[in-house]
Each structure stands twice: as C-alpha cells, then as structure tokens.
Amino acid sequence: MSTVFDLDRTPVRFVTLGDSATHGVGDQVGGTWRGWARILADSLADRHQIQFDNLAVPGATVSDVRRLQLDSALALRPHVASLIVGLNDTLRSSWDARRVRDDLLHCGETLSAQGATLMTVRFHDHGAVLGLPGPLARPMTRRIEELNAAYDELHASFGGLRIDLSDRPEVQERSFWSVDRLHPSERGHRLLARTFAALLTQHGLPCPAPSPFCSEPAPTRRSEVRWLLTEGGPWLGRRARDLGPWALRLAVSSALARTTARRAVSPHEVRQLAA
Question: Which of 187, 251, 249 has the alpha carbon at shortest distance from 217?
C-alpha cells in the first residue's frame, strides 16, 4: 500500500521490506498495525514529500523477501529502503545460513545499485528475550550469530544505516516487547523509529524525532499469562519440533569434538600439563 504526503516538499521514496516486525505487528491502532516504519514515515513527512510503501509481510523469510518483495521495491525506485528480516529463518528447521547470506546480499546489492540508502539491523539474542530453555536457546543463538555475520558483510559492502539491537539495553526490557515477546510493543516500535530518525538526520535527510509517548498501556502480567496459555504454549511446542533435532545434533557434535580433543593429547603432554 502506497501513501504520498505533502506534494509541495522535496520528494523522498521510502520502501520497507521484511516480516511482521516491519509490517507493524505489536503496535495496533484502530484495528490495524502501524509500527515503526509508519511512525518514521509520518515524521519524515514533516520535512519532505514522502511516498511510503510498506511491502513487509508477517511470517516472511529472507528468501520470501527476495522472491516476493524485491521486484516490487525496485519498481518503486526508493531513495531509502529498509531490509530487516531473518528471525523467522532462525526459528525453522529449514535454516540454511549460506542461503540466507546469499539472499540478503543479493537484496542489498540490488537495492544499493539502484541508488537506495539501506536501513538494516544487527539482531539481539532473541532466545534470551523469549526465555527459551537452554537446549532451544543455544541453537537459536548460534543461528542469530550467523545471521548477524551476513548483515555485517552486507553493511561492509553496501553501507547505509543500521541499528545494533544487541547494543541497545532497552531491547532487554520487558516494556520493549508486546505480550508475545516476539514483536516490539508500541514503545519498542517508537524507539526504533526514533533511532532511525536520528540516523537519517545524521545521513543528511532531516527527520524530526517521533514522539516517545505511547497511546496504549504496556502489557499486563495477566495478559501475558493469557497469551502463554492460549498461544505461547503451542508456539513453543512448534519451535521445539523445529529446533530440537538441530539442538541434539549440535550437542552430539560438541561432545564428539571434546572427546576427540582429549584423545589427541598424548600421555607425555598430559604429564607436562600436570607438572
């Protein structure tokens, strides 16, 4: 859906690609999702003529963005394009770090070659935010590290603006997240919008800081428990089926590596170490 603001100002085409976080899930206004991208576009409209197109789709993976969103984004010839996706990939048994890297770099290279300024992130340890048990948290952490390595390569190759979520202490605060702990709350979306607004201003595209004040109250403990009972439990069960086998293989390979390393030490070396 495309929106054009104030035709008398300098034109800026702003396009967002990604998944539910960029779609706006977690920040509901009037029965629809708003989110950080819309909040940022509204602030940009105070200074510029903005054409804003949010192409992000809930549930999208990196390959979905390449196959289903990239061509539409290129047709819009954006001046600024956000590319934030990958957490859905880390939660699936089909995880393929090489494919994720290749798809991300292709999207970034194609958008950048057309002249778009990229907006990206480095991800935090979302397993800690979700409170996943160790056997599930460890493989997710490993995958996020691989995902961040791809984003590091993308940023080194094509530049642009990015937020390092792992370096933002507020990301670890409960109020940053909606009741499901999967998507930012209104506060989280506003913090993202404000951070990107500051980066755009530093980059030479003046953008007033969006308001930090929220119109909706933070999730209550009761709403969290209700979500856990009705949706969180089944969700965790699905993730266990996806991540469990990978976690088991990781544990076995790590144990074998430790055993091999111990066997590689000769008795003479053991005596030397003991001495």
Answer: 187
Residues linked to residue 4 through DSSP beta bridges, in sequence order: 51
Does the pLDDT at position 220 exceed 50?
yes
Q: Specify the 3-state DSSP secondary structure of 18.
A: strand
Residue 133: count of CB within 10 angstroms of its CB? 12
Question: With bands split at pLDDT 50, 70 and 90, how would you rate the model's confidence at 138?
Answer: confident
Centroid of chain to Cα 149: 13
Return the closest-CA partner of residue 22 out of 4, 40, 5: 40
Distance from chain centroid for Cα 64: 15
* Residues pairing with 3 in the sheet: 52
Residue type, 20: S
DSSP, collapsed to helix, strand or coil, labels residue 16 as strand
Among residues 112, 102, 196, which one has the least CA distance to residue 149? 102
246 with 97: CB under 8 angstroms? no
* Cα distances (angstroms) measured from residue 69 to each of 18, 106, 147, 158: 8, 13, 19, 19
The values of phi and psi at residue 50, to 5°, are: -105, 130
In angstroms, rounded to a whole number, what is the distance separating the alpha carbons of residues 242 and 252?
17
What are the CA-CA distances from residue 249 to residues 28, 44, 239, 254 (Å)? 40, 48, 16, 8
Give kind and range of the element (H or E) at residue 54: strand 49-54
List, for residues 189-206, the tens digit of each pLDDT value: 999 999 999 999 999 999
Nearest alpha carbon to residue 103 among 60, 137, 135, 54 = 60
Residue 148 CB-half CA count within 13 A: 16
